[in-house]
Design a protein that fits this description.
- This protein has a domain of 141 residues.
- Helices cover 81% and strands 0% of the residues.
- It is built from five helices and no strands.
- The radius of gyration is 28 Å and the shape is rod-shaped.
């Protein structure tokens, strides 16, 4: 086992330990949000992942906090949005780590090409070819992760649009109920022979 692998294993062990502590501190009645928070904690605690995907991790943390504060009827959609943002953060982190590894392999390949002029040329070229193939595999994986991130972003936008539609429908129902109440009040006033109360002005639609 290389020194890098040993450090990575140790970092992941610490991350999992911290994640377990974070999950234990989460509300017992909210296991889904505790699970999402644990996944974020793993990303933030590992030395290899703590410095990448900062913006996506911040948005995921915001979504988790918003889901905790959401009303019960809005909770499922809020939790779904938080889950998508956590998954997006994980994909972005993996993509950036893959890109870093790709860059490292490219540098190593370049160094080997220079070394090939000083040492056994055939052996150096064979090693360079191996690294080229490995770099190509890394590039394909990075592209796959990028496409997955784009798909997740589109799905997140769709989910946010659904939330906006639900909010608009609720507002329309509230306005209709107020108008019905005002109409009933006017009719009651006419039956009693008193002056009906003034109609409540309709709220102006918000500019988008």
């Amino acid at each position: 086992m290389s020194r890098r692998e040993s450090l990575l294993r140790a970092g992941l062990a610490v991350a999992l330990s911290l994640a377990a502590s974070g999950a234990a501190a989460a509300p017992a009645d909210d296991p889904e949000l505790a699970r999402l928070s644990q996944r974020l904690t793993v990303l933030e605690a590992s030395p290899d992942t703590a410095q990448v995907g900062t913006f996506e991790r911040y948005r995921a943390r915001q979504a988790i906090d918003a889901a905790r504060e959401a009303r019960s009827r809005d909770r499922p959609a809020a939790v779904q949005l938080a889950d998508r943002r956590v998954e997006t953060a994980e994909i972005v982190v993996r993509t950036q780590l893959a890109q870093r590894e790709l860059d490292r392999l490219d540098r190593e390949r370049s160094e080997l090409l220079v070394e090939a002029s000083r040492r056994d040329a055939d052996r150096a070229r064979a090693e360079a070819e191996r690294l080229r193939v490995q770099a190509q595999i890394q590039a394909e994986e990075a592209e796959r992760l990028r496409q997955a991130a784009d798909q997740e972003a589109a799905a997140r936008q769709q989910a946010e649009g659904l939330l906006d539609d639900v909010a608009g429908k609720q507002a329309a129902k509230l306005r209709a109920a107020r108008e019905r109440d005002a109409e009933l009040a006017r009719r009651e006033a006419e039956l009693l022979g008193v002056e009906p109360p003034p109609a409540t002005p309709k709220p102006k639609p918000k500019k988008k």
